């Protein structure tokens, strides 16, 4: 099983404040596209790196997107093609992959937020 600590510094529920023993049970910490946009790339990356180091877990990229336009804002590039959850977990734990941030990350997130607001207005 792979358990990712998703957007650990969101105000709605600051997961990073949970007991460290519990947090160490996560497979990795997420570096989230929306958080990079809202908190700023440098600040967000620094916070996530510090938490991952404290927990001794790797960082994975994640857009946590609910809108197509935001997809690809940030992604993981693995050296090996994983065919099973076990293989993927091993690759994550080894940290043998890179995270790629799109040059259009901010634009993609803004467009996704705008579309979401429009859809909410239409009660989708």
What this model shows, in words?
The structure is a single chain. The chain starts with a strand and ends with a helix. The longest helix has 17 residues, at 105-121. The chain is α/β, with parallel strands linked by helices. The chain has one domain. Helices cover 43% and strands 17% of the residues. The protein is globular and about 40 Å long. A three-stranded parallel beta sheet has the order 1-2-3. The chain has a two-stranded antiparallel sheet with strand order 4-5. α2 crosses α5 (105-121). The model has no long low-confidence stretch (mean pLDDT 87).
In DSSP terms, counting alpha (H) and pi (I) runs of 4 or more, how many helices? Answer: 5
Major beta-sheet overview? 3 strands, parallel
Order of helices and strands: EHEHHEEHEH
Number of domains: 1
Helix content: 40-55%
How would you describe the shape?
Answer: globular
Number of strands: 5
Indicate the mean pLDDT. 87
| Measured distance between first and last alpha carbons | 33 Å
> How much of the residues is beta strand, in percent?
15-25%
Strand order of the largest sheet: 1-2-3
Task: Give unreliable regions as ranges.
Answer: none
SS content category: alpha/beta
Rg is: 15 Å
Question: What are the main properties of this structure?
Answer:
3-stranded parallel sheet, 5 strands, alpha/beta, two-stranded antiparallel sheet, globular, 124 residues
Give the arrangement of secondary structure elements:
Elements: E1 4-5, H1 20-23, E2 28-32, H2 33-39, H3 41-55, E3 59-62, E4 74-78, H4 85-94, E5 97-101, H5 105-121
């Amino acid at each position: 099983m792979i358990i990712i600590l998703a957007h650990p510094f969101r105000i709605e529920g600051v997961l990073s404040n949970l007991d460290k023993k519990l947090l160490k049970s996560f497979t990795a910490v997420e570096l989230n596209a929306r958080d990079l946009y809202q908190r700023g790339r440098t600040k967000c990356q620094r916070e996530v790196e510090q938490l991952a180091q404290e927990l001794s877990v790797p960082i994975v990229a994640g857009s946590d997107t609910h809108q197509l336009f935001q997809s690809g804002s940030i992604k993981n590039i693995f050296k090996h093609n994983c065919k099973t959850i076990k293989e993927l977990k091993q690759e994550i734990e080894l940290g043998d992959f890179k995270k790629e941030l799109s040059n259009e990350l901010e634009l993609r997130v803004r467009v996704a937020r705008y579309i979401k607001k429009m859809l909410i207005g239409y009660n989708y």
